[in-house]
Known about the structure:
The complex is a heterodimer of chains A (148) and B (643).
Chain A: H1 2-35, H2 51-56, E1 68-80, E2 83-90, E3 93-102, E4 117-128, E5 134-146
Antiparallel strand pairs in A: 1-2, 1-4, 2-3, 4-5
Chain B: H1 2-17, H2 36-39, E1 70-72, E2 77-80, E3 83-86, H3 91-102, H4 109-130, H5 137-151, H6 159-209, H7 212-220, H8 222-277, H9 281-294, H10 309-315, H11 324-350, H12 354-368, H13 372-375, H14 379-401, H15 404-417, H16 424-449, H17 453-466, H18 471-484, H19 487-499, H20 502-507, H21 521-548, H22 553-567, H23 575-587, H24 589-603, H25 607-620, H26 625-640
Antiparallel strand pairs in B: 1-2, 2-3
Amino acid sequence: MARKRSRKGKGGNIFGIVVTLAVVVLLVGIGYLLMSPSKTNTLGKPQHFSIRDYRNDGSRLAVPGNHYVLEGRIESIETIGNDRMIAISMKNNRNERLPLLVTKDTHLSVNLTRNDYFIFDVECRTGRDASGNEIKGILVVKNAESVK
Amino acid sequence: MRIQILTMVMSGLCYVAQAQMPIAPQPQQQPQSAPSQQTNQQQSPHAPQAQPAGATEPTNPQIFGVEIPLLDPATDTVTYNGGKFDVGNNAAVRAKFETFLHGTPDTTEEARMYVKKIEGILQETKKYTKSRKAIGSEALVRMGKALYQLSDMPRDGGQSGVLASSIVSALDAQRTNRSRDIESERLNEEIDAMVKRTNALVNRNTVGNRGPAAQIGAIKGPAHNGASGVSNTFTIAHNTKAIAEKQAAKVKNSTMNVESEMAAKVSYQSNMVTFLLMRRFDHAVIATRIYRHVFRDGDTKMKIEENSKANEILSGVAGVPPTVNTVDALASEARSSVDKHMDAVYSMLAQNKLGEATQHLIEAVAIGEHMHSVFTFPVEGRRRVAAYWTLRKRALTALNARDYGTVDEVARKMKEMDVDFDDSMLLSYSAGKKRQSDLCIRNARKALLEGKDDEFNRYITEAGTIWPLNPNLDASAQQLEKFDSNEKELGEFRTLYARGEYRTIFKEQDRFECVAVDPQLKPQYKEVILLISTIDAMLKQLESVADQDRVMGPCIAYEKLIEYRDSEPRCAEDPAFKDALNLYAQKAHDFVQALQDAEENESRREYGSALANYYRALCLYPKSTLAGQGAAKVREIIVKAQY
């Protein structure tokens, strides 16, 4: 009798463990979803990007795996070494300039030209200088498409 | 020529009066120690010399070199370098003129009667002058009586009595001479009679002795002629003596006549000249016209000593011996001249030309104060001329006292009174002296600031000498007193400077000017003045920029203020600077906020945000140096990092 009860009890424990694991996974999933910032996972669905917020605290956007889609006109391009710093004016805010870094490692399918409109896929990163100090909140261009 | 003669007479009058007192002081040598700046000062030409005696200031303004003032007593002017300035500097004439101006015209009935009688006598003498008819004794007696009556009148001053007495004296002398002549005639007749009788006695003696030998023997030998012969001889001797005595008496009478005649002439001519010198021209004319009727010998030569002043006056012009007619001519010319001057006075007053009127009146009074046309000059005209004369005296007094402020004021008033008055000489001379004095004061201040006491003393003394009443001298004196008691200011300046209260020092820079004497504080004082002056000038300029462009103007102003503050940190404590900075920070709020956010982001190493803020600032003010430099710096940092 004791063995039967024991079998019955073992089966119940397994069920409980499975349910618990399922709940944990569900909670982790919900938490992940809740913790992630506004973002898009596809190039064709840009999410809201506030320049004002960025000017106030850019590093807040630099969560791992973030990237943003920004559409704007290139107002200036400055080449420093092998990198380029471009300043774009957003479509909905011509009175602001947003600095974007195009590193030498970025291979773009389009040629960036001044006064032209592009859609940029950017990621907010935190770099480090030669001394190991943080360089926070830098928008690095991952990809770009020309706007026809 | 007549005018020259008249001038000589007037010179003689001045000599007689013994009262020449030139107002114009004697020229003195310009001191060689005068500062070089003064030699460059423009001075008024033809300026009247007017310096008090004994003053260190050169009395003769030297414009083109050493100039000697030339006094012309005839025109009562002083000449400088060809220009003339009327000074009326004959004290005797001036005193008489002022007495005349302040007197009242003698228009009493008695004065009119006096003039009428004098004119009557003149007309009567004129009648006899024109005709060859001699004035009879009755006419002379009548004139004498009339003159005696005139001498009792106040206007006459007893001169007519003197003339009448002269005439009477001359006539008495004439009468005495005539008595002597009669006596001489009688003596002559007696001599002739005695000569005849004597001759008869001599002839009788000759006939009694039958020949010259017996006559001789009768004289020599009493034995042959007896008592009769002796008696004739004594009678003849007595007659001869009597004849000799009568001859001597006749000669004596003749000599006394000559002496009496000469004495009478000298006395009469002396009175004539005296009348002329006393400007009693009417009496002089009457005396000269009567002269040839009193002394009928035709001798009109003046009996005056060759070396006398009167002879010099009367014969000095032409060099010919003076005669009675010379006196007549001078007196008549003077009378005519006075009347012409008085006509000119009335004419000039009618045209409101007080300067010319005064000049004519002073000459009329100087020449003929006793003339009818002069002493009846109306009181209204006298007052107008007196007012102008008083101003002219004030001008001279002010020039003597070197009170150039008063000189200007008087010149202005004189110009108001007489539109023809040439005030250029007074004003230009005054202006030149004022500038000269002010220049010395300026140099004194400069010397004081440089701590050169000797130079300061020299310049300030010179300024006071040139223009004693220069109002700037008072200011300099106050400044000097301030410098003498500047310890309080020195301490206060040090405190304010240490506190950085430069604006306070700047606001009271006049009070703190004394610190410039201190070699240690002088650079600080200059530094403060320069700093605040620069700030004020900059703020004024930025205000203009901000007003012109109300969008970017405040951004420009703010950025310039920040840049200046970085280069001159002391300005940050200046209230005006701070106010301006706050004002423009408020007006350019977005720009300033962007820059401040950028700097804050940089401090938090938020370089992306910092660059975005710099870009925003550049959008608001594209030429912003601060934003441009900040963006460049941040870009450099971003690019050099690894991502």
